[in-house]
Input
Amino acid sequence: MADDEELIRDLIERWAAAVHAGDMDGVLADHAEDIVMFDVPPPQEGVRGIDAYRATWPPFFEWQAQGASFEIVSLEVAAGAEAAYAYALLRCASREERLAHPDHRLRLTLGLRKEDGRWVVAHEHHSFPDTSVPSAD
Output
């Protein structure tokens, strides 16, 4: 499975680079037609299907074009024969947010499956920690 884990790692790194570049084709590549995504902004019930997933990206690209970052800080991958998951922390913030909160991270979880011998993202979940209440630490 190490080869599959490396393939998935490469897929995720290409996706993150495409997000950072505002490259819609690259963002959509390697995603299942029936993708389900839960994102930071609404809708609360998430989006379902590649067309709904595509529609979420233009506002993000506009925000990012103002100098925001989107880069993987850490990435872990586990793969079986037909299903895999990955989780990552990303630096995703405006220039001002990075300066004010340099340790703030976007959390990313991906569920992948093999379709016709290739890995595709079937589930994507983005979240930020809730900083409105003090942490227990």
Observations:
- The mean pLDDT is 93.
- The chain has four helices and six strands.
